[in-house]
Amino acid sequence: MKITRYLVLAFLGVMSLSACKLDLSSKINIGDLNRVALSQEGGVTDRGTIKLEVGSMDHCQNESRFFASVLESHFQGFNILPCEQVGLESYFVAGFQIPILHSARDWPEKSNSLIAIKAVRSSQIGGVDVDLLLNPARFRTINKAIEAKYFQKFDFARSRIAIRLKNDQLTYHDVLASDVFANGLPVVGLKAFGLKPGTTHLKIELSDVQREFFSLYSHVPLFKLILSI
């Protein structure tokens, strides 16, 4: 009977964390990317959100403290947000600050963040190259804690990683992106997107190939900023 009860509880635990789906999104200002890349300013951060798909809203409420205990030491400015229901899917949600760096050198030792943005002056164009960085050691630590309780691991193949880029500057900017989803539409090859001054946004979401590259190599190119054309 004890073995049966254990198996039932284990099964319910597995079902409660639905497919280990991970959603990482960030809101990035062009002005912050320029400040870091062109002036090598330190300590710059923008806002991010992490979502974990769970079995139900009740499970999210009951397990919020566990998820927070697993994640909070791996994100700057971590704070729990209200659980979300999107159709039939339920999510644990938390906000964080994503650091913007001018160099990837030794960054895992200098930051407690799972992910970071790297913005550097481009050697090919008159602008800025922007990459997304992953700290693989922290990702393994998170996965180990999740697996110990739910017998599953997070997998970037099932995840969603997106950047919402805002032109908060007074000048026009072009954004060059390739093999991504831009504002929900697939981009094949290199394509330019114009962002007018003010509040114009561009939403860039990684493709499955890019997510696999990110998982394997702990970094992935996001886009290039053209300062002016």
What does this structure look like?
By secondary structure, the protein is α+β, with helices and mostly antiparallel strands. It has one domain. About 30% of the residues lie in helices and about 40% in strands. It has helices at about 1-15, 30-40, 55-70, 105-110, 135-150, 210-215; strands spanning about 20-30, 45-55, 75-85, 90-100, 115-120, 125-135, 160-165, 175-180, 180, 185, 190-195, 200-205, 220-225. Strands 1, 2, 3, 4, 5, 6, 7, 8, 9, 10, 11, 12 and 13 form a 13-stranded mixed β-sheet that branches. A hairpin with a 5-residue loop joins strand 5 and strand 6. The longest helix is centred in the N-terminal third of the chain and has 15 residues, at about 1-15. The protein is globular and about 50 Å long. The N and C termini lie far apart (about 70 Å).
Features:
229 residues, alpha+beta, 6 helices, globular, disordered N terminus
What is the gist of this entry?
The chain is α+β, with helices and mostly antiparallel strands and 229 residues long. It has helices spanning 2-16, 30-39, 57-71, 107-110, 136-150, 208-217, and strands spanning 22-29, 44-54, 76-86, 89-101, 115-121, 127-134, 160-166, 173-178, 180-182, 185-186, 190-195, 201-206, 219-226. Helices cover 30% and strands 42% of the residues.
Residue-averaged pLDDT: 88
Radius of gyration: 19 Å
Uncertain residue ranges = 1-16
Q: Proportion of β residues?
A: 35-45%
Q: How many H/I helical runs?
A: 6
Shape: globular
Order of helices and strands: HEHEHEEHEEHEEEEEEHE
Q: Termini, distance in Å?
A: 72 Å
Q: How many DSSP E strands?
A: 13
Structural class label = alpha+beta
**How would a crystallographer describe the biggest sheet?**
13 strands, mixed
Please estimate the helix content: 25-40%
Counted up, domains total 1
